[in-house]
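Database export, one record per block. Field names are fixed; values are copied verbatim from the stored entry.
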Amino acid sequence: MNPSIQLVKTAYNQYSGTGKILALFFLSLFVLFFMEKEKEKRSMFLYPSFLLLLFALEPVWKGLFAQMGNLAFNRKVYFLLPVFLVIGVAGVYVIKVPKGKWAKAGALVMLAGLIAISGKGVWSQYSLSYWENGMKMPLEQREVMDWILAHENPKALLPEELIPISNQYSSKLHTFYEIQEDGEMGKLGEEQRKVYYQMSIQHMDSKLLVEIARKYGYSYIVLKEEYHFPKTPLSLLKFEKVATYGPYSIYEDREETL
């Protein structure tokens, strides 16, 4: 992924952690309602912003837009756009109220501080965690899930610790076998046991993993770089590294495209 796009995406992910930003959004709507004298201009910001917010928070539409163009952007981006628009416009009105340059500068600093403290974990990407589907999940693990889900064939062979998370995170993400949150596993078939074993050891038989992945139409293999050391590099088997989030690297099957 382009480093600039990755930086923007990470910033959105980090900033959208708490409900304070929504409180600031509604405060901004309040400011616009009373400070904007022209009814037509006021309505232009208020009503579309409410509609955009409700539209973007709807899970069906949110899921649809999150997959458009195969971009693995955080879904919170889509409700943050109208939120940031309204906060920005209201901020301009607030800054215009004080008289004098120093007063305006002070208002600007206060507004910037208010926006800054409404985020979460802005300076610590990999220490950020949040409540998702009833469980805490580190940022890099959620990034892996979102990246795979944003593509047409969300089927992946995952490290053992990601299996219970992925099963609970989204039913659209297909793993080769299931592990419950308490660690219990259902009955595994022969090839499922092979995949489970290979993903649990350091020096894995990458040729076997690729063979099984292609046999069942799994386009992605996720490895934990500091732990997994494939006997044969996946790149030699036409699985190319396409994304890295923290310790996790995502490899995509490029056999048909090469």
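Remark 1: The chain has ten helices and six strands.
Remark 2: Strands lie at 129-132, 135-138, 156-157, 220-224, 239-245, 248-253.
End of record.
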